[in-house]
């Protein structure tokens, strides 16, 4: 056997992984190997949509993007230290030269994964365990060791971070307690200090200064929270955050709260008054019972109909952009497409995410349709969701500002087509 390949048979290192028996590990290995084999056939035959006439060509799926979603869903084995269980990789499509970011996880059942992740500094290789065939040569953008409180979500064509957009999560503990949560699975939540708002904004401001960036170039701040137990405390935190950003000279920043706790018209109107242009909900899935089972009662008990009413309130409150986060896998195929159509009909952009399965419990929580339909379930779900971006999205708005920033700083001929994209 090639010494570079990792065996399916359990070694000492793997003996207690995820508490799986040898039979359980083999069942998972067989299931994932069959899924990957059929998915690769689908990807090879896949014809990307011709988006050459699109003004904002940021939603088409390439074969390489589909491969990145497949790897993200299945998870990888590795010889890397398990101090990090999540990596953000950069894939580049050989046909279009378009790059996209996608995360992978190193799951508890990693010895059963048919895909092996081998890192060499800032580069890495994804290979099939059984044959050693190279699936992709990728870049390593980030090794995620714990809960980070910010990152820059737009990058230049050569992967240099831009000051135009940030996704922030200053409060690194959550009140939700969701089964499907990647941070919960790898225990990366940390108790925040009492002055976490001030510390977070000060750290971001100092980082801008170190990079030589003008603070006025930050135009998009996605406040990713879900951490406070009720609307009053969530609203108070967001208002304090926005005020602190203004005090530190981020005068052009618009804010986009990502929250399940904000629900009332009054709270939404307060957020609009202080500079929030968009509202991001957390529908997660469309089946109400699965939402409770996988996302817990605090978040999951908000029904789909209640989500729809909330987004209509956000529209009436004047938010220019209304999005919701959607995780593929929990719904049946028909539930998925019907739910996306229902939200699209009221002007909501559905932002799709591929589920990272760190535990066997998370892997088994996926709907049987994803196993029966394979990659067509994922591709059709993403195509349907990405079509809703015509309603307006935060990432498209930030991308336009990023193209303008690059042109003002000496770049020529840039368009949205040139920017790397994220389909998480």
- Enumerate how many helices there are, as a single number: 13
- Termini separation: 35 Å
Mean pLDDT: 87
Please give the oligomerization state of what you see.
single chain
Helix content: 25-40%
Features:
single chain; 424 residues; alpha/beta; seven-stranded mixed beta sheet; four-stranded mixed beta sheet; 14 strands; 38% helix
Description:
The two termini are 35 Å apart. Residues 1-16 have low confidence and may be disordered. β5 and β6 form a beta hairpin. The chain has 424 residues and is of the alpha/beta class. The longest helix is centred in the N-terminal third of the chain and has 24 residues, at 22-45. The strands form 3 sheets. The protein has a 7-stranded mixed beta sheet with strand order 1-4-5-6-2-3-14, with helices on one face. The chain contains 13 helices and 14 strands. α9 runs parallel beside α12.
């Amino acid at each position: 056997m090639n010494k570079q390949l990792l065996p399916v048979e359990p070694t000492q290192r793997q003996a207690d992984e995820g508490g799986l028996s040898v039979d359980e590990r083999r069942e998972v290995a067989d299931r994932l190997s069959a899924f990957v084999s059929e998915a690769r056939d689908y990807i090879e035959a896949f014809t990307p949509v011709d988006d050459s006439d699109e003004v904002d060509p940021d939603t088409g799926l390439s074969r390489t993007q589909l491969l990145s979603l497949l790897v993200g869903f299945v998870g990888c084995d590795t010889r890397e230290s398990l101090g990090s269980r999540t990596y953000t990789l950069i894939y580049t499509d050989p046909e279009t030269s378009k790059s996209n970011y996608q995360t992978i996880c190193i799951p508890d059942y990693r010895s059963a994964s048919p895909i092996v992740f081998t890192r060499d500094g800032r580069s890495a290789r994804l290979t099939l365990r059984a044959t050693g065939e190279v699936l992709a040569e990728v870049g390593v953008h980030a090794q995620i060791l714990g809960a980070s409180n910010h990152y820059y979500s737009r990058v230049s064509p050569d992967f240099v971070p831009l000051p135009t957009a940030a996704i922030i999560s200053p409060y690194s503990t959550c009140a939700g307690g969701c089964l499907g949560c990647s941070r919960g699975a790898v225990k990366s939540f940390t108790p925040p200090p009492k002055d976490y708002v001030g510390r977070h904004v000060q750290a971001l401001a100092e980082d801008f200064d170190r990079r030589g960036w003008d603070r006025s170039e930050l135009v998009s701040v996605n406040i990713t929270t879900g951490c406070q137990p009720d609307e009053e405390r969530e609203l108070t935190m967001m208002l304090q955050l926005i005020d602190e950003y203004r005090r530190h000279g981020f005068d052009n920043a618009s804010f986009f709260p990502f929250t399940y706790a904000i629900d009332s018209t009054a709270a939404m109107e307060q957020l609009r008054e202080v500079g929030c242009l968009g509202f991001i909900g957390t529908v997660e899935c469309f089946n109400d019972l699965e939402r409770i089972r996988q996302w817990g009662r605090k978040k999951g008990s908000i029904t789909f109909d209640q989500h729809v009413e909330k987004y209509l309130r956000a529209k009436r409150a004047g938010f220019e952009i209304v999005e919701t986060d959607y995780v593929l896998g929990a719904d049946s195929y028909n539930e998925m497409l019907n739910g996306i159509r229902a939200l699209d009909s009221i002007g909501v952009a559905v932002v799709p995410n591929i589920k990272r399965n760190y535990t066997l419990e998370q892997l088994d929580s996926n709907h049987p349709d994803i196993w029966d339909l394979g990659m067509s379930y994922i591709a059709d779900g993403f195509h349907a969701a990405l079509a809703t971006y015509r309603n307006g999205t935060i990432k498209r708005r930030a991308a336009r500002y990023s193209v303008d920033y690059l042109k003002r700083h000496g770049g020529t001929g840039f368009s949205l087509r040139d920017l790397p994209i994220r389909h998480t």
